[in-house]
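Now for our specimen.

. . .
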Amino acid sequence: MSRLLAAAVFAVSLLLSAWVQGGPTAAPPNAYLYIGWPNDGQTLPAGKPFKVWFGLRNMGVAPKDVKYPNTGHHHLLIDVDLPPMDKEIPNDRNHLHFGAGETEAMIELAPGKHTLQLLMGDDKHIPTNPPVYSKRITIYVK
Protein backbone atom coordinates (compact mmCIF):
# COMPACT_ATOMS: atom_id res chain seq x y z
CA MET A 1 0.00 0.00 0.00
CA SER A 2 2.80 2.47 0.81
CA ARG A 3 4.43 1.92 -2.61
CA LEU A 4 1.15 2.76 -4.29
CA LEU A 5 0.79 5.90 -2.19
CA ALA A 6 4.39 6.93 -2.92
CA ALA A 7 3.81 6.43 -6.65
CA ALA A 8 0.64 8.52 -6.51
CA VAL A 9 2.40 11.33 -4.61
CA PHE A 10 5.24 11.29 -7.14
CA ALA A 11 2.81 11.45 -10.09
CA VAL A 12 0.90 14.34 -8.54
CA SER A 13 4.13 16.24 -7.84
CA LEU A 14 5.20 15.84 -11.47
CA LEU A 15 1.84 17.14 -12.67
CA LEU A 16 1.92 20.09 -10.28
CA SER A 17 5.48 21.06 -11.21
CA ALA A 18 4.53 21.05 -14.90
CA TRP A 19 1.35 23.02 -14.15
CA VAL A 20 3.05 25.82 -12.25
CA GLN A 21 6.02 26.12 -14.61
CA GLY A 22 4.69 29.10 -16.54
CA GLY A 23 5.57 30.36 -19.97
CA PRO A 24 8.88 31.48 -21.47
CA THR A 25 9.03 34.95 -19.86
CA ALA A 26 10.90 35.17 -16.57
CA ALA A 27 9.38 36.93 -13.57
CA PRO A 28 11.18 37.94 -10.38
CA PRO A 29 10.89 35.12 -7.83
CA ASN A 30 9.77 37.62 -5.18
CA ALA A 31 6.99 39.24 -7.27
CA TYR A 32 3.78 39.58 -5.28
CA LEU A 33 0.36 40.18 -6.83
CA TYR A 34 -2.75 40.98 -4.82
CA ILE A 35 -6.21 42.51 -5.01
CA GLY A 36 -6.14 45.73 -3.01
CA TRP A 37 -9.90 46.31 -3.28
CA PRO A 38 -12.45 44.86 -2.75
CA ASN A 39 -11.56 42.85 0.32
CA ASP A 40 -12.08 39.12 0.69
CA GLY A 41 -15.62 38.50 1.99
CA GLN A 42 -16.85 41.99 1.11
CA THR A 43 -20.48 42.59 0.13
CA LEU A 44 -21.04 45.09 -2.69
CA PRO A 45 -24.29 46.63 -3.96
CA ALA A 46 -25.94 45.06 -7.00
CA GLY A 47 -26.58 47.15 -10.09
CA LYS A 48 -23.54 49.37 -9.59
CA PRO A 49 -20.07 49.05 -11.08
CA PHE A 50 -17.29 48.81 -8.52
CA LYS A 51 -13.56 49.31 -8.70
CA VAL A 52 -11.11 46.42 -8.53
CA TRP A 53 -7.66 47.68 -7.58
CA PHE A 54 -4.65 45.61 -8.65
CA GLY A 55 -1.61 45.54 -6.36
CA LEU A 56 1.85 44.42 -7.48
CA ARG A 57 5.23 44.44 -5.76
CA ASN A 58 8.74 43.69 -7.05
CA MET A 59 7.62 43.61 -10.70
CA GLY A 60 6.59 46.25 -13.22
CA VAL A 61 3.58 46.67 -15.50
CA ALA A 62 3.96 47.01 -19.27
CA PRO A 63 1.31 46.92 -22.01
CA LYS A 64 0.77 43.88 -24.21
CA ASP A 65 3.29 43.55 -27.04
CA VAL A 66 5.93 45.38 -24.94
CA LYS A 67 8.69 42.98 -23.93
CA TYR A 68 10.70 44.46 -21.06
CA PRO A 69 12.46 42.52 -18.28
CA ASN A 70 10.50 41.85 -15.08
CA THR A 71 7.21 43.24 -16.41
CA GLY A 72 3.84 41.93 -17.47
CA HIS A 73 0.22 43.01 -17.49
CA HIS A 74 -2.83 42.11 -15.43
CA HIS A 75 -5.59 39.61 -16.16
CA LEU A 76 -8.62 39.45 -13.87
CA LEU A 77 -10.16 36.02 -13.48
CA ILE A 78 -13.82 36.01 -12.47
CA ASP A 79 -15.48 32.84 -11.18
CA VAL A 80 -12.89 30.52 -12.78
CA ASP A 81 -9.82 28.53 -11.77
CA LEU A 82 -6.35 29.46 -12.95
CA PRO A 83 -5.83 28.56 -16.63
CA PRO A 84 -2.92 26.42 -17.90
CA MET A 85 0.31 28.22 -17.04
CA ASP A 86 2.09 27.51 -20.33
CA LYS A 87 -0.62 28.73 -22.72
CA GLU A 88 -2.15 32.07 -23.66
CA ILE A 89 -4.68 33.28 -21.09
CA PRO A 90 -8.21 33.09 -22.57
CA ASN A 91 -9.96 36.36 -23.38
CA ASP A 92 -13.62 36.15 -22.43
CA ARG A 93 -16.08 37.41 -19.80
CA ASN A 94 -14.34 35.34 -17.12
CA HIS A 95 -10.76 36.25 -18.15
CA LEU A 96 -10.45 40.02 -18.53
CA HIS A 97 -7.28 41.36 -20.17
CA PHE A 98 -5.74 44.69 -19.19
CA GLY A 99 -3.24 44.96 -22.01
CA ALA A 100 -2.92 48.73 -21.86
CA GLY A 101 -1.18 48.39 -18.51
CA GLU A 102 -4.19 49.26 -16.34
CA THR A 103 -3.83 48.81 -12.58
CA GLU A 104 -7.53 49.05 -11.74
CA ALA A 105 -10.85 48.37 -13.42
CA MET A 106 -14.53 49.13 -13.00
CA ILE A 107 -16.62 45.97 -13.26
CA GLU A 108 -20.24 45.07 -12.59
CA LEU A 109 -21.34 41.60 -11.56
CA ALA A 110 -24.75 39.96 -11.24
CA PRO A 111 -26.06 39.40 -7.73
CA GLY A 112 -24.54 36.39 -6.02
CA LYS A 113 -21.26 34.97 -4.79
CA HIS A 114 -18.22 35.58 -7.00
CA THR A 115 -14.50 34.87 -6.96
CA LEU A 116 -11.80 37.24 -8.22
CA GLN A 117 -8.14 36.47 -8.86
CA LEU A 118 -5.35 38.26 -10.70
CA LEU A 119 -2.79 36.62 -13.00
CA MET A 120 0.16 38.36 -14.65
CA GLY A 121 0.75 37.68 -18.31
CA ASP A 122 3.70 38.53 -20.52
CA ASP A 123 3.65 40.57 -23.72
CA LYS A 124 1.76 37.72 -25.44
CA HIS A 125 -0.73 37.02 -22.58
CA ILE A 126 1.12 33.90 -21.40
CA PRO A 127 1.68 33.56 -17.64
CA THR A 128 5.19 34.35 -16.48
CA ASN A 129 7.72 31.90 -15.11
CA PRO A 130 7.32 31.49 -12.24
CA PRO A 131 3.61 32.29 -12.51
CA VAL A 132 2.61 35.42 -10.61
CA TYR A 133 -0.97 35.27 -9.35
CA SER A 134 -2.93 36.61 -6.42
CA LYS A 135 -4.85 34.84 -3.74
CA ARG A 136 -8.41 34.15 -4.92
CA ILE A 137 -10.93 36.25 -3.02
CA THR A 138 -14.69 35.80 -2.64
CA ILE A 139 -17.11 38.72 -2.81
CA TYR A 140 -20.88 38.96 -2.56
CA VAL A 141 -23.07 41.18 -4.72
CA LYS A 142 -26.50 41.92 -3.18
